[in-house]
Amino acid sequence: MEESNVELYTSSTLSGVKVSIALEELGIPYEFEHLDISTNRQKKPWFLEINLKGRIPAVTDTLADSTDVVIFDSGSILLYLAEQYDKDHNISFLVGSAEHCEMINWLFFQNAGVGPMQG
Ligand SMILES: N[C@@H](CCC(=O)N[C@@H](CS)C(=O)NCC(=O)O)C(=O)O
User: Fold this and answer.
1) What pLDDT, in 10s, does the model give residues 70-103?
2) Among 14, 38, 58, 61, which residue carries the largest CB count within 10 Å?
3) CA of 115 to the centre of ligand 1 (A)
4) What's the alpha-carbon Rg for the chain, to the nearest Å?
5) Domain count, the chain
């Protein structure tokens, strides 16, 4: 397991729990900040500094070269977690493989197609 400084900002929505599931499946240690979107906590200035869209989920982490990064949008976060932490390909596939192409197809279909249609 790589070093992790992951902090997850999320809520129990469909987009939100996807990221929690990936973190748990990968066994990545992480800090968790619950944002109750019914109280508009995701629009507070401190969170807009993290994700200017004011939407959950978002993740912050520190790269191997000590750069702090913010990743938002569930599909982007899932790809980031796979690239950074799924070195054994437990929940993702090797870049360049046919399976990886298929995974990207369905990830984008879900995020750009089915997800927005469901609101
Ligand atoms: N495409 C984005 C959707 C993000 C999104 O719409 N999040 C909703 C909860 S599922 C949210 O933060 N809603 C509160 C708001 O828009 O203020 C993703 O997959 O992360």
Assistant:
1) 999 999 999 999 999 999 999 999 999 999 999 9
2) 58
3) 10
4) 14
5) 1
Cα 117 from Cα 71, distance rounded (Å): 23
- CATH number for 15: 3.40.30.10
The answer to the question of residue 75 being in a domain is: yes
Residue whose Cα lies nearest atom 6 of ligand 1: it is 55
- Alpha-helix runs per DSSP H in the chain: 14-26, 45-48, 74-85, 98-108, 115-117
The span from the first CA to the last CA of the chain, in angstroms, equals 35
**From the alpha carbon of 55, which atom of ligand 1 is closest?**
12
Q: pTM for this one? A: 0.94
Find the domain containing 56 and state its range: 6-89
